[in-house]
Amino acid sequence: MEYLSRAIEETILQSEKTFKCILVTGARQTGKSTMLKKLFPEKKYVPMDDPFIEEQAKEQPHMFMMLNTPPVIYDEVQRVPELFRYIKLKCDETQARGQFCLSGSQPLELMESASESLSGRVSIIELAGLSMREMKGDSFNLPFVPTMAYVQERSKTAAAFENIWKIIHRGSYPELQNPEVEWSAFFSSYIKTYLERDVRKLSAVQNLNDFRKFMVAVAARTGQILNYANIADEVGKDQTTIKRWISILEASGIVYLLEPFTSSVLKRAIKTPKVYFRDTGLAAYLTRWLTPETLANGAMSGAFFETFVISEILKSYSNRGIDYRYCVSYYRGKDKKKGAESEIDLIIEENGILYPIEVKKGTSVSADQTSAFTVLDQIPDKKRGMGAIICLCPIPGALRENILKLPVWYI
Fold first, then answer.
1. Alpha-carbon distance 249 to 20, whole Å?
2. Cys bridge to 385: 265, 340, 355, 360, which one at CB 3.0-4.6 A?
3. Which spans in 123-207 are helix H?
4. CATH topology for 9-126?
């Protein structure tokens, strides 16, 4: 299949010129190795998941480094964390940039090793699955924010998909963009590889079938507030185990935990994160929604659409090298006046301005569905900016002076 250009390439090329070492992290099969080999064909490529290479690097790291000198690409480097100290020494021997290009599918574990050994020498970059923009070959690269300036710029290249549910159901892994790759066979193999390699590596899970059952339980709750006790009851494990297993899914890029918006003013706000699968195709496979049609019309369609939208927004930030964890959150709490719970699906914070987002899978939406946005007016040191409902409407429009409705492909 022809190589699909990635939006983050510009960030990687710039980092390679600025830092001695770059580290590209992300879930399995997001295209890290393919992209690095395409961007740096002159660098030697060393795959650490080759058993012989892994053994050599672990048992004789000094000799291994002598035989595989920079500039070099070390793929799946998390398999040999012992190398980080030797990479640091090599970086310190020269002022040359772009000496090491590292990749790995265990972001949090890698970041800890890299931050300890390579502080000030490494640029850590997250590669997610393909975004809608990348699937369309759209070069638009601004991070999503619901402002008029953004919408006007986005309208120059935004193009609708013939059937967005096919995209949501198939998922964002690059290999699945080849229509000849069978959907269920891909994910069956993906989960088997993930369980046997990453899960065993990250935690001493005795029974992989129990972990598979746990993955299904979490996938069935994508877009929901994370309830450890509820999952523990369904899987038959204690909450401590479930919390540890959630951290494994998060560390290996399978799920994202969206933290709640915190403010001393909002005393009735829920303080538990929401859980989102990063790839809707994988979540659909685990929960047995076997076709786009059944998914679009099923009981979980709203949760899947929200999961897809949140994932696309996060990609628009990570593809610019922006750490979105510090600028996105959600809100759910009780309204004192109404006595009912209200929710804002996503809040994007930028320069002290809070942009509230609601996600609806329908084509027809109304300003009444954004009544919770006014809770942000209570925050004394912040300003509420333009809000938006992201939905399946055909074109952008204004619901009120400060509320937009936007088609999902405008992300």
1. 30
2. 355
3. 132-136, 148-154, 164-170, 183-193, 200-202
4. Rossmann fold (3.40.50)
Q: How far apart are CA 191 and CA 175, in angstroms?
A: 15
- Measured between alpha carbons, how far is 90 from 72 in angstroms, rounded to an integer? 12
**Torsion angle, alpha carbons of 287, 289, 294, 297, to 10:** 30
Task: Look at residue 59 and give its three-state secondary structure.
Answer: helix
Q: Is the pTM of this model over 0.70?
A: yes
Helix axes 208-219, 239-251, angle to 10 degrees: 80
The tens digit of pLDDT for each residue in 1-54 reads: 688 899 999 999 999 999 999 999 999 999 999 999 999 999 999 999 899 999
| 383 vs 360: CA distance, rounded Å | 24
Phi, psi of 103 (to 5 degrees): -140, 155
CB atoms within 10 A of CB 375: 22
Query: Is there a contact between 23 and 105 (Cβ–Cβ < 8 Å)?
Result: no
Query: C-alpha dihedral over 177, 213, 203, 222, to 10 degrees?
Result: 60
CB 271 within 8 A of CB 243: no
Query: Would you call 196 helix, strand, or coil by DSSP?
Result: helix
